[in-house]
Amino acid sequence: MTTVRLHKIKRPGGEYWFDFEQVARDADGTWLRGPVGSPWHAPHEDGTSAVSVVVLLAPGRPWAAWWVGDPADRRLEIDVCLPPTTTEDGWRYVDLELDPVWHASDGRVEIEDEDEYEESWRGGFMTADDAKLARVVAEGCAELLRRDDEPWLRRGWDLLDSA
């Protein structure tokens, strides 16, 4: 397995990074997996992951999907972002804050982090175009999660469960 670093930029929060294994690349994008114990860094602390995750990224697509194996709240989170780009050591994207989330326990879909979105937009850390992109993509991804008809949605769970 190839180890790659995912850099997630939050405005104004700073840079977060996660060390993952690249497990596949296909027509849907690049698949990364972070088993329990994977290192991460936030501006205020460092740590290791308490749960397994799988991430799907693709250049040009304004979102990154995160399958989260949290036993208390197994979920699929979509990070709406500026399209991810490859870097020397992995991937990078700028988070646009809105996060459509599907909860496995009850099938509920919600869009989280409205407060962070408003703070970034009103604080001048996001352009009007980025704010509009975030809203349109978040609503589209929430609908995609409700329909649950994309094959890659199940593939993410399969990769998470095989970790």
Automatic annotation (TrEMBL):
Q: Name one Pfam family in it.
A: DUF402
Recorded superkingdom: Bacteria
Start and end residues of each DUF402 domain: 48-147
User: What species does this protein belong to?
Assistant: Paractinoplanes aksuensis
Q: Where is the signal peptide?
A: none
What protein name applies here? DUF402 domain-containing protein
